[in-house]
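Supplementary notes for students who missed Thursday's class. We covered one full example, reproduced here. Read the sequence, then the structure, then the short commentary at the end.
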Amino acid sequence: MRPRATELLKTRHFLVMGILNLTPDSFYDGGRHRSAEAAVRHVYRMKEEGADIIDIGAESTRPGSLPLSSEEEWSRLYPVLTALSRDKFDLAISIDTQKSEIAAMAADLGAVMINDISSGRTDPRIFKVARDKNADLVLMHMKGTPKTMQDSPSYADATAEIRAELSSFSDAAMLAGVEKERIIVDPGIGFGKRKEDNLALIAGLPSIAGLGFPVMVGVSRKSVIGGVTGADPEHRLPGTIALNVCALQGGARIFRVHDVAENRQALQCAWETMENGR
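Structure (token representation):
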């Protein structure tokens, strides 16, 4: 059995989740790892760089993207998950999906975390899969769907509103039988938010951490960095590191990133500095 993130957090200060996109159209690395061989090589590279978790997704969720059929999604995932299972790959594997059938099949091939950007709203049966497979479950906030989420989103108080929705999502998951100890929350940076909403959420993370669940953030190379600096995705690593350090200080403990080694080094230095200041 691969280790679960919620178990790892009992002995580690923070976790770095390396991103593997098996999509042709992701905003930053689409198409780079489409063959199973290239994808598996990238997984092992991220492990060498210090990843604690590998998050594997096959459906693009960039703004404006359309849903993918289950058949196409699974055809992209199956060769990679099978290869890692055959190799007895020993890091935690997360499956980034909104579909219960995909989550269940991935769990049967060794995935120990379900990362659902819709928090069960697309397919409530995903709660049953998490319960029955005893998997960690990431509940993320998103306004609308990937196709519509950036159509004039607005909040009166982004942190308070998103905290309340995450609380509601976690209540629904627990009502469906998911153990509280298996739930992780993610404020959904970039998913139906303006630049100012994203920055407010990062500043307001202590409130979200106050819900009592581990907090995951995914700021890696996202448009909020471009909104602040004007940089394109290829040049947003410094901004990614800066926002992740701010998130660590605010109580986030899982960091979903494209650049594992660089973010791990920065987070380790930030953590040591925080510890020495206590």
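Commentary. The longest strand covers residues 15-21. The chain has one domain: 5-277. If anything here is unclear, bring it to office hours.
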